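Dear support,

I submitted the protein below through the web form. The confirmation email said the job was done, but the results page showed an empty box. After a refresh the structure appeared. I'm attaching both so you can tell me whether what I see now is the final result or a partial one.
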Amino acid sequence: MSLYTVIGATGFIGARACETLRRLGEAVYAPARGDPDLFSRDLGRVLYCAGLTGDYRERPFEAVEAHVSLLARLLETSRFERLVYLSSTRLYEAQGEGVGREDAPLRIDPNDPRHIYELSKALGENLALTQSGGRGSAARVAYVFDWAPGAAGFLSEWLAAARAGRDLILESSPSFARDYIHVDDVVRGLKAMLDAPGAGPVNLASGRRLSNLTLARAFEARGWTVAFTRPPASEPTVTCDVSRLASLGAAAGDPLSLVETYLDGLNLGA
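What the results page shows now:
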């Protein structure tokens, strides 16, 4: 049995990580915010899941505290065996088009206030990779989804709406496309990274961009109606390279197949 510390254990990914690790019989320390023991006890293998997502623009200083400042204090003073820092594949979005590879330079504009999320995540990655004595790595996580009640994210909310009714109106465009990954695949990838240190940054993604239109067709084929409030629009696309994740034996499942299987289950239970 190993000791795992999950920082940000009340969040979407952190909570699932705690649940999964405990089910596997591992010891889990899930410190509350401000817990002073974080800097005085042995932390074992650390999953750093603390962070802000949708509201970082309204709370920029809290975002920097979660993404950088707390991490810096932990790296400087705490005792740990290994650490994985949760970053984001959003770091590739300023690239415009092409393939998001972990070893490629990033394009982030410090003059753009929208980039405070990306800038702080990039600095967090740098600290984890360069100031951990070779014990840190970074997981660049794509757009996470689940069908459990309360799951965060656009696709999660879409699936929740499907449980409640058959006529769906979505505040989005049919051309909107993202690389989705199920939360259980994220946790599996994180554990694989902790079990194989030194992987550097790793894209935790499916490697496939899934459009709203493709998803809508899957819903409609199973009895739902789907309408969008925004017109189609072109947008730059970056596809994540997932070869590093595959080399860890933790390749993610096909998100479209997972969604279709879930919808089929809803129909069977109707």
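Response: this is the final, complete result; the empty box was a page-load delay. The two ends are 42 Å apart (CA to CA).
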